[in-house]
Hints:
Helix content: 40-55%
Structural class: mainly alpha
Distance between the termini: 46 Å
Strand content: 5-15%
Low-confidence stretches: none
Number of helices: 9
Amino acid sequence: MSRIQFIMKPQDVVVLLKIIALENNDWNQTQLAESLKLSQSEISQSLSRSRFSRLINMADKSVMRHNLLDFLQYGLAYVFPQVPGPVVRGLPTSHSAEPLNKLIRSSEAYVWPWSKGNVRGHSIEPLYPKVPEAASQDTKLYEMLALIDAFRVGRAREKNIGIIELKKRIIGGE
């Protein structure tokens, strides 16, 4: 007798953040697939993993925001770590993107590699290859993804400021 294992994948985080960015529970899998450049089966599998991990309530299609925030703050850097790579052209992330670039000054830029990007910086692999394209079309999603990259590659100061900013976007004015 075999059991199905529900192991989180990087795109699951992006799917959950996209649902939060939509600011309503009136979404469907087709809409998510198109906006995130994923297939509908990838979205369906992602939602199943997130449900099993207690990160989404499918009954009302709502993200369990406190659980997600805990996972992002305390687990993301260990589950999906990243080390800055060579200098490439791409889309700014972490402290190089809004809102952190207004709060932290750095001479070192971090970017997701992307041919349509207009900034040169050290490469940070996105959670999945289509992240730069999806983020470029949704400001709220982009900000949250850039903030979580501060957890993946940042120092203590970036992480501390990042969690404050991410809480504002995921939980609200708490």
